Amino acid sequence: MRRSLLLIIDTLQNLALATWVGGLIMMLAAALPAGEPVASSLLTRFGPILEISGLVVIGAQWVLRRRYAQPRAVFIADGVRQLLTIGALFFGEYSRYVLRMRPHSGAGALPVGSGEVSLLALELVLLIGVVAVTAYLGLAGAAPAAPAASVRPGPPAAAGTTRKRGR
Fold it and tell me: Of 51, 32, 42, nearest to 116 (Cα)?
């Protein structure tokens, strides 16, 4: 039961991360053409989905944090992943706050300046780091453990058959 629950949480985290990265790529693709306004409806519709995806990723990482307690390198990689995720969520919230506070320039469109595009790009770079560290942690968790040395039981030693060192 516990193993299946961990698998479900891990799958939810990966789906939320894929939604977050895909949404950012979609928003950057809409914002990159020079001089083209980005429809504010895209930002207002997809913004809450990105926020929920980010919170699901952070929540899943918090629930699964004990899985990466040993060895130390994996523990540190998990901590870096959590910091990158929180940083990406921060920059995402900040960029959406900046875009919401901009005055509308008619026809329901928000012009996206280079500052907002760079914030979205920074968020995407942080999330690519999260994906890379998540892949590393998946490989570290999937690595087979070294087999323990097996001791084969042999015939019991007869009493008094031990050798003493000669004088």
Answer: 32
The 10s digit of each residue's pLDDT in 102-150 is 655 555 444 555 566 777 788 888 989 988 988 888 887 655 444 445 5
| Beta carbons of 13 and 6 less than 8 angstroms apart | no
Residue pair 75/69 in contact (Cβ under 8 Å)? The answer is yes
Look up tokens 């020079």; give the residue.
34
Token digits for 159?
């009493």
DSSP, res 38 = E
Give me the count of residues in the chain. 167
Please tell me the distance from the alpha carbon of residue 57 to that of residue 16, in angstroms, as a whole number.
Answer: 6
Q: Find tokens 């901590």 and name the residue.
A: 79
Which of these, 76, 55, 59, lies nearest to 136 by C-alpha position? 76
Contact at 8 Å (CB) between 53 and 92?
A: no
Residues 6+ apart with CB under 8 A from 55: 89
Q: Is the pTM of the predicted complex or chain greater than 0.70?
A: no
Beta bridge mates, 109: 39
- With 0-12 / 13-18 / 19 or more C-beta atoms within 10 angstroms meaning exposed / middle / buried, residue 9 is middle
